């Protein structure tokens, strides 16, 4: 890991210090994905079966997971793992229910009542990767808020193994969250199937979930097609930024850095600390712990693009962190709450030495689908709101129209939108006529 | 306007009946916009000045609106219009404050406290078109929620007229809402400038606002670039759907249909009613009122792609409306509230005969930047939340880690993420060691 002193860097070196690994949408990738999407739109299930054979190495007859397969998956699952999935689902539901949007009603003028109502997105599609390892936790993180939101059709796609089955833990997690239908489809073809629908796979209004470069590119492509589907957020490699003071435990700091580094070779981890000693200790602990990891080869590569940065104060650490806008921000300092007000951009924040990121990844109750690659500057993590729409309802009485109609008419006239103006003035005239009639003997 | 009977249509004819005018991203448009974006990224302000000369027909020295220009705009403005802008801004602020996200805190297990905090998006860019007419109301609809959200840098771009000035009402509205800086730039070049920054225009994290096909395409292009900016929502032509019963006033129904039809030749308006007589009356009123409009030429063209559809009941009207997912839904029936629960997808809903859409467009307090083109299936209109991020903060005590750590460790092991597991188990071991020490004599 590169060691840097923030206050010795000029602006360009600072930019380099916080630069993320380049994510380029190569023409090869875009073209390849566009061909897959086109094939799925043209040939539907046949194309899906061909891609499953080519990419997942499995021959599928039915694309949908059957009741018998769900039952077999549940029967095969370690009871300890089942209990952990149940436990995590319950806590995720607890937090997500608490943070769901509530309806609001307010009178903005006498007779003008505005109500904000909340409606589920009817048809949602969830993608759960199963590349280097299956991710039942992602099924929980997407399935639970979809259920809390009340989505009517919740579809989940996850690639099958070569034996034609999906991972048992993913299937069990999907069932626990109440996902309605699961399909054994992966990659860009799964995204295309959910965005446009096939004979087997129902069309979805919005797609959620992480994935590799092909999945990410497919999500982008369907999201910019007016006849495609919207998506949760742009994806990028996982990342963590740790702020530590001189009293932090370097064993914990190193463990947290490594828990992101093991994700993928393009993951990035950053330590910010005002303590020179902490940089030395964390570096040596990272080296020591990394050697013991089964995925140390991946971690070593991602550590190569990672940084241990000396800052002059915790306040400066917060500034640098805000500039980076990390997906995960771990604050291992004596008084972590004192820094919270200054934190502006992060996907999720973990306070204190007993809050490893892994808790949020799995079972504290918060969502682990978070904005990466600096998108935390403008995006939030997935929540129940991601599965809902908010609609403003305007309930206006005759008195309300009298109160605010003239203002609308003036603005419509200024914008040269005469029909907008008349929709108001015709009604005001009708009210006047009515009053005249009522007032006459 | 085409007249149709929903129950006489087969599925394919129903699809046609609700089809929107095609929005195709032609290669010409994409390529043209990509060249503009590239020019702005490469040559910054120089490129902006060239495009202003070429497209807006004006020679600009300074791109930013000066204090003197703001003062001159305010001095030149009709006091009645000024008052209307002030009045609308106050009501928009009232509603937007009431619907802003609140922080939430919840304990999901003993010692595991999750807090959802809300932070403004720091740097936002607003686009206010001034094509066929300037739109001060759009400056209000974007500027007010940006201020309520607490955004630190609020930039607004709007094209200059040939005389090198921006519209006075737009400038006044921008000032009323507290927009920090206004630039006299329009079109795709304005979007590029705000997404990437130039010497004059500050770079923004998220861009908002409607625009023509060039602006829309530019927003899409910068939104799929990881180094670009995020956007409020995909744009499309404006549209209204009116549900009317046999007792509705056809004069009001026609006025509401026309208030969308005058927007642009690609606008679409739809009437759903169980009353044959209403279809006849609305058609003849539309014809009569349309002839009186200054923009009747536009309205006639958009009416050509619009429909008057007979349904068998108000319940069926709601079903058809949900399928269409209109930007604006006006419900002119005797008991409009009875239909509200069934309404699933719409940008904004207007209940009863005294609630023309124009009120929501200008001054009831709700936002008029709404999802069009069926995007109401998965998008909400612009709100304060559009200018904010929600961050989950995890505050975990040693007891909390003990309570939920084993669940996280089990799930991490199932996902073969050993470093994730160890970030938990190392801490649990440290707690055990500490207790042993404390327990010894």
UniProtKB/TrEMBL annotation, chains A, B:
One of its GO terms (cellular component) is cytosol. CDD domains: Histidinol_dh (cd06572). GO terms for molecular function: histidinol dehydrogenase activity; NAD binding; zinc ion binding. The lineage of its organism: Bacteria, Pseudomonadati, Pseudomonadota, Gammaproteobacteria, Lysobacterales. NAD(+) binds at residues 127, 189, 212. Transmembrane segments: none annotated. The active site is at 327 (proton acceptor), 328 (proton acceptor). Keywords: Amino-acid biosynthesis, Histidine biosynthesis, Metal-binding, NAD, Oxidoreductase, Zinc. The gene is hisD. This is Histidinol dehydrogenase.
């Amino acid at each position: 890991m590169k060691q840097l002193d923030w206050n010795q860097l000029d602006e360009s070196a600072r930019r380099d210090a916080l630069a993320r690994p380049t994510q380029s949408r190569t023409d090869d990738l875009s073209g390849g994905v566009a061909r897959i999407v086109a094939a799925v739109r043209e040939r539907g299930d046949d194309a899906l079966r061909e891609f499953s054979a080519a990419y997942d190495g499995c021959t599928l007859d039915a694309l949908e997971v059957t009741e018998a397969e769900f039952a077999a998956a549940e029967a095969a699952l370690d009871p300890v793992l089942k209990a952990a999935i149940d436990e995590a689902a319950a806590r995720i539901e607890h937090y997500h229910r608490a943070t769901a949007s509530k309806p609001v009603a307010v009178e903005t003028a006498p007779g003008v009542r505005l109500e904000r109502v909340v409606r589920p997105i009817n048809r949602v599609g969830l993608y759960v990767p199963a590349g280097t390892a299956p991710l039942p936790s992602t099924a929980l993180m997407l399935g639970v808020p979809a259920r809390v939101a009340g989505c009517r059709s919740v579809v989940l796609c996850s690639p099958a193994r070569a034996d034609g089955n999906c991972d048992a833990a993913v299937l069990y997690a999907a069932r626990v969250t109440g996902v309605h239908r699961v399909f054994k489809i992966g990659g860009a073809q799964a995204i295309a199937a959910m965005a446009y629908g096939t004979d087997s796979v129902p069309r979805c209004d919005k797609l959620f979930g992480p994935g590799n470069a092909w999945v990410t590119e497919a999500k982008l492509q369907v999201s910019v097609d007016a006849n495609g589907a919207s998506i949760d957020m742009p994806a990028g490699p996982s990342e963590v930024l740790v702020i530590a003071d001189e009293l932090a435990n370097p064993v914990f700091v190193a463990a947290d850095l490594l828990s992101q580094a093991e994700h993928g070779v393009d993951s990035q981890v950053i330590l910010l600390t005002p303590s020179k000693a902490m940089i030395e200790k964390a570096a040596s602990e990272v080296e020591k712990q990394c050697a013991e990891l089964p995925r140390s080869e991946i971690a070593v590569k991602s550590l190569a693009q990672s940084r241990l940065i000396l800052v002059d104060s915790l306040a400066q650490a917060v500034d640098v962190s805000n500039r980076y806008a990390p997906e995960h921000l771990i604050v291992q300092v004596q008084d972590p709450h004192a820094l919270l007000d200054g934190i502006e951009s992060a996907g999720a924040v973990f306070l204190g030495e007993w809050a490893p990121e892994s808790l949020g990844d799995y079972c504290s109750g918060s969502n682990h689908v978070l904005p990466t690659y600096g998108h935390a500057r403008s995006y939030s993590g997935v929540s129940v709101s991601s599965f809902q729409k908010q609609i403003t309802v305007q309930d206006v009485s005759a008195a309300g129209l009298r109160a605010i109609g003239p203002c609308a008419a003036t603005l419509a006239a200024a914008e040269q939108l005469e029909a907008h103006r008349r929709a108001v003035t015709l009604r005001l005239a009708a009210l006047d006529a009515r009053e005249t009639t009522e007032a006459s003997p």
